[in-house]
Amino acid sequence: MNISHIVNTDLYPFDDPGGGTYKALILECREQLEKTGCCLLPNFLNPVALENAKQEAIELASSGFQMNHYFAYDDVDDESLLRNLQFLPMDHPRRFRSLTKIRFVARDLIGRANPIQLVHDWPKMCSFLQDILQGSEIFRNECPLSSCVFTVAERGELQDWHFDGNEFIVTVMLEDSNEGGHFEFVRGLRDAEKGDNFESISEVINGKYPAIERPAIKPGTLTVFCGKYNFHRASAVEGDGRRIMAVLSYETEPGKTGTDEYLKLFYNRTLLDVVGYPTPRDN
Ligand SMILES: O=C(O)CCC(=O)C(=O)O
Ligand SMILES: [Fe+2]
To answer: Is the pTM of this model over 0.85?
Structure first.
């Protein structure tokens, strides 16, 4: 399958950066990111590509790694003496444990022809991301396990409130759970200089924050989200539906892969477990 069969290039002509449609798209995406930290590209995948990508994700779901882990919401090592958690009030958000209970299908399990793999590796994705984020150069994450994965959540499964380590994340919704399984976020609760807004974070965690954003994300939609400073979660799936997301990673430096510690946690494997990686050289 060629990329023009996979991506709706009429709506999203990433291969025509000089054209009016592309220029208008970039302005629109920048505006969305500026306003909300999140930008949605509905119908990004063509229907056949969406169906193919989803079918493979469904077939692979049971081979994925079932994660069931509580994180600190800011993902800082709990045991670190520097955190002095014992001196914090019992209801302080630093004591909150954010549950990730979801299945992760690593990239090396996914067929090379899967539309999502082709989208991840499409060089125009990097130029598009660079154009909308207007920062440094963007590179693909090169990890054979974590650069491009599926997450699968069934009833009661979620990725609770957190901030990401990475500046931004790219997702493509493959299947919508119908009930629950919402992507939700709140802007601006973390500031690079001022730190975290503990009061509002507490409200969010306790279900008391009045203005949580919950964009309607339909299957086939590509989302770019700046998760480093915007508090977010994928809420618990309810009912019999299933939520399947493709998660695509990009970086501001070339050649990045997941660390062994991170890969072990999310995939129960490390780079040493990937057959043929790194590609053997002749000498
Ligand atoms: O599944 C989603 O919608 C969000 C995923 C997410 O927050 C993450 O992978 O860090
Ligand atoms: Fe996240």
So the answer is: yes
